[in-house]
């Protein structure tokens, strides 16, 4: 049985458990991504598998040792999360890793983060493996807006550009959220706030994902990179205003630390990633998939 939203509010740092000093470890096992967010600097999570790309991520079978070491150094870790560096459903690595965690570390909360393109068709796997908390990044629920944030999707081997791709992405995200939420998995939705693109769309997203079954909403400020490098990042007042608007419809998480895909420790308080991973992931600043 998955932890309920109420359980997670005490034990999961990203669902309210930050009050209790709950920590998390991210296992960077997922190379490659299947969508093309216009703000994403794809130096490591490119859809193409380039030499050297996969070597920087962890293999599922390496995770047991990593977890043992991490729990030894930081006993506050309650959550094993997989949040990249690419998409967790674009390959089977995340699901295979969670299978190992379920068997070897049954007390850890299993947390997964995805862009949701394949969530609807992989919902059974996510449910069967016993994911406790699932985050889906939904940056728009209107394809015209989504297209401004995402250039294309790679769907069943086909590259689908612009609005057509955006339609499929949004449909699959919402369908996927409905399936996993109705199976009892607690769903968080992340939105990357780009004021001039989706700033006026936040209420609509919050309302739509709540109706689909999400429990909590996290608004992440854009880090201007890649195609959106010249776009203005939101200031604190923009983020506050967006959170206030969203909170009319859904609980809002306000303590996000924009963790890297290889973060280890209590968010905002301790960071052991250097000791655990020797910073094998060569990424600079990342927006989070968490
Ligand atoms: Fe990691 Fe994300 Fe799970 Fe948390 S992070 S996969 S839900 S265990 Fe948390 Fe970090 Fe913010 Fe993410 S503070 S970036 S919301
Ligand atoms: Fe993929 Fe995440 Fe980058 Fe978007 S931000 S392209 S989902 S890796």
- In N-to-C order, the SSE pattern is HEEHEHEHEHEEHEHHEHEEH
Percent of residues in helical segments?
A: 25-40%
CATH superfamily (homologous) name:
Aldolase class I
Which ligands appear in the coordinates? FE(8)-S(7) cluster, iron/sulfur cluster
Mean pLDDT: 90
Structural class: alpha/beta
Tell me the Rg in angstroms: 17 Å
Per CATH, the class reads Alpha Beta
Low-confidence stretches: 47-55
Strand content: 15-25%
Number of helices: 10
For the biggest sheet, the summary is: 8 strands, mixed
How many runs of DSSP E, i.e. beta strands?
Answer: 11
Q: Number of domains in the coordinates?
A: 1
* CATH fold label: TIM Barrel
Q: Please identify the oligomeric state.
A: single chain
> Based on CA inertia axes, which overall geometry fits?
globular
Report on the architecture of this protein:
- The protein is an alpha/beta fold.
- The protein is 34% helix and 18% strand.
- It contains 10 helices and 11 strands.
- Helix 4 (119-128) packs parallel to helix 6 and helix 5 (143-149) crosses helix 6 (162-182).
- The longest helix has 21 residues, at 162-182.
- The structure holds FE(8)-S(7) cluster and iron/sulfur cluster (SF4).
- Iron/sulfur cluster is lined by residues 33, 35-37, 40, 45, 86-87, 115, 289.
């Amino acid at each position: 049985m998955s932890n309920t939203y109420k359980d997670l509010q005490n034990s999961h740092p990203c669902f309210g458990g930050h009050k209790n000093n709950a920590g998390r470890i991210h296992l960077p096992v997922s190379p490659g991504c299947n969508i093309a967010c216009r703000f994403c600097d794809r130096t490591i999570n490119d859809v193409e598998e380039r030499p050297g790309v996969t070597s920087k991520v962890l293999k599922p079978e390496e995770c047991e040792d990593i977890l043992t070491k991490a729990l030894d150094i930081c006993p506050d870790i309650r959550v094993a999360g997989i949040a990249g560096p690419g998409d967790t459903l674009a390959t089977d690595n995340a699901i295979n890793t969670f299978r190992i965690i379920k068997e070897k570390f049954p007390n850890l909360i299993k947390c997964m983060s995805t862009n949701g393109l394949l969530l609807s068709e992989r919902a059974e796997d996510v449910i069967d493996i016993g994911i406790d908390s699932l985050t889906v990044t939904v940056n728009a629920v209107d394809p015209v807006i989504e297209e401004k944030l995402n250039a294309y999707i790679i769907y069943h081997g086909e590259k689908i550009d612009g609005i057509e791709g955006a339609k499929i992405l949004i449909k699959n995200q919402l369908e996927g959220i409905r399936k996993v939420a109705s199976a009892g998995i607690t769903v968080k939705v992340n939105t990357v706030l780009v004021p001039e693109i989706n700033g006026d769309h936040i209420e609509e997203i919050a309302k739509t994902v709540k109706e689909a079954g999400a429990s909590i909403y996290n608004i992440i400020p854009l880090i201007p990179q890649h195609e959106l490098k010249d776009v203005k990042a939101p200031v604190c007042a923009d983020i506050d205003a967006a959170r206030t608007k969203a909170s009319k419809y859904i609980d809002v998480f306000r303590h996000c630390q924009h963790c890297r895909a290889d973060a280890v420790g209590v968010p905002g308080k301790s960071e052991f990633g250097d000791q655990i991973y020797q910073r094998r992931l060569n990424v600079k600043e990342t927006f989070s998939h968490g």
